[in-house]
Amino acid sequence: MARALFHRRRGYSRLSRTANRLWACRHCDERHTLDTIYSVEATSSASSHLERKHRITPSPATTESSESDVFRPAKRARYASVVEVSEIRELLVGHIVNADRPFSVFTERYLAEIFRRFEPSLASQIPWNRTSQRRQLQAIFASKKVLVKESMTAAISRIHLAFDLWTSGNNFAIMAVSGHFLNRKGIQQQRLLALARHQGDHSGDNLAATLVRVAEDWGITDRIGTLVSDNATNNDTCTTSFFSSINPCFTLQDTVDRRMRCYGHILNLVGRAFLRGEDDDVFEEESQRDSAAPGAQALASDLGGWRAHGPVGKLRNIVKFIRSSPQRSEAFQQLAKEADSEDNWLLHQESKAELRLTLSNDTRWNSTYLMIERALQKKSHLQSFLLQRQVSGDGQIPLEAHLTGDDWLVLVELKAVLEPLYRQTMLCQGWGEKGSQGYLWEVLSGLEYLLDKMEAWRIFFDTPSDEDIEQSQRYLLQQSQRTHRPRRGRAARARSPELNTQALPSHVQQEYSQGQVPTAVRLAALPSSARDHIRISVTTAWQKLNQYYTKLGASPLFAAAIILHPGRGVRWLEARWDSGDQLEWLRDAKEGLESFWIAWYRDTTPGSQPRPSSNEGRPPAKRSYSEYDDWMAMDLQRLQARSSEATEIERYLRLELPIPDVDPIEWWLEHKQQFPSLSRLALDLFSIPAMAADCERAFSLAKLTLTSQRLSMDPETLEMAQCLKNWIRRDAIMVGGIFFSPAAGLSEETML
């Protein structure tokens, strides 16, 4: 054996084409003097070569060995422990789930050979076929589900369910159910609980039956706080039926209180109303603005035509024309690169040549916003491309279908109107951190912000006054004179020469121009018809926004989340709702919070001990008492009794709020002793998501798994794979002894 090891260390062995074993000297190869390859049949030849040419001989302890010993594997067969094999099998399933690989991936010829060569003995102990991997998926899913259940049992808040429906690629109705809660450290958590097959119609009662099955399977029927879903009417029925099933004592109002409307869906409806919505009341109101205005039906027809063939319609047709042909796309990109290369100095902005045009679709309103935003970024490229094709005689896009200067002005205004909606969607669709971005308290404040913006746009696009027109004319005259005024030599100071913005590249002229264009100028520059169309669209969007703003009042929890946020407080609502009917909203918000707290959270155990008086331990002053002193003592007793009877809500509302830059969850955890029952309500509220966007994410990830080659996958397997993927990526479980994120801690505290 020692001789075999000696030869193996001093050379290489390979199998020739004739199936003969050959040996080559390592030392000769490293010195580039290799001129002879020896046959294994003559093992003495290799020894003679080493001794003769390199003066290397085996140690005296070397014993004779057979020819086959030279090529025997270097390591003894190693048999892994049960724990090690279990972890490896978990890692294999983790790879299949996380990378969306087929169950047969490890039987692929070359991958299997890699495993065999690196650790042949270990490879023989693990089943690699697709049936074994699927069986292992079932076992791992069952074991990890127990851990996720334990983490939810340890939650310090109620568990809020977000749900949505999806039709899979293999034509199954699938319901995604996601759980949101605070772990025992007060960190917001999200877990995909089910991607369950939904059978039957989509009535509210039938949806509730599927939800109840999921809740019972997880054993959380007594821990559920609220349901978050889109604004479909069947979800109203579903919420009522669901809570009535898990708690027959619930009244209709109890279920309405717990029906949380998805903020993202509200934003989607408002965006669609602006771009494509029609409201008969708005058309009627618009027709009555002017006696010469057309009737409501004519306005509706005119608006529809403008949306289809106006600036947005033109832009969509142009983008679709460019993107529908690889040759046109390539020509457009080449033109953009050439245009940017001519401006080889960029002051503060990256090149836009590599940006691709974005095409809108009919299902998502924000795709239209992104199309307009990208087109404005590449305006000069689009104009150059269309001009080039017009000059070349290519009449595929007629001149009347080109975007005019007025069209570009309209696109700028459309982007400005849609931008707040888009920013709110992006802000609240994620999982919040430290009580911000994506949780319940942002819904009401976000709608207030958007209502302010929409009301401002309605005023902005109204008919300009004579004063506005005169102001715009004066501004345009001044700009004209400034632009064409001749330069008279060098400026007096070399440090501050006069800046000629016309000499700058077009993409930076606006940033370096003197001042900002007045609002009246922007308004007057728009064609009157476009201004009217935008005003109608803004009013339609405002109506939709106001409709759902009103619906939020059905549940006291939206306003309660604002009141119990120490960075907002009731003073934020008082500042917003300060007149007329708004004062009633404020009263209802306070009463709704108190009623909900009394019904579901007020501690039934004896209250906290009364605080010691400030005079405790101080000897009483020696003085003679009179009738007046007795009267004052009685008054003091009444005040002390009233103070001790003050509820937690009353004591909270007396605090000096708001507190800037505060984490609401951390604040309530620190004040649990002061507000024992109110803090439980607050923590429950701050674990409610603003949107059901995590269900949409689950569907998007499921599409990556359920490719056209895997449509035979049954819904149960898809559910196990997607739930495990969510738990892995949220670092809720360890797979193979490791977390998915390298930064995740390995302690039980992190998991719970």
Automatic annotation (TrEMBL):
Please give the SUPFAM superfamilies that the UniProt record associates with this protein.
Ribonuclease H-like
Chief subcellular location: nucleus
What Pfam families does the entry give?
Answer: Dimer_Tnp_hAT
Domain of life, per lineage: Eukaryota
Report one GO cellular component.
nucleus
What are the residue boundaries of the HAT C-terminal dimerisation domain, all occurrences included?
651-728
> Where located?
Nucleus
Q: Can you name this protein?
A: Transposase-like protein
GO molecular-function term, one example from the UniProt record: protein dimerization activity
* Region annotated Disordered, chain positions: 49-69
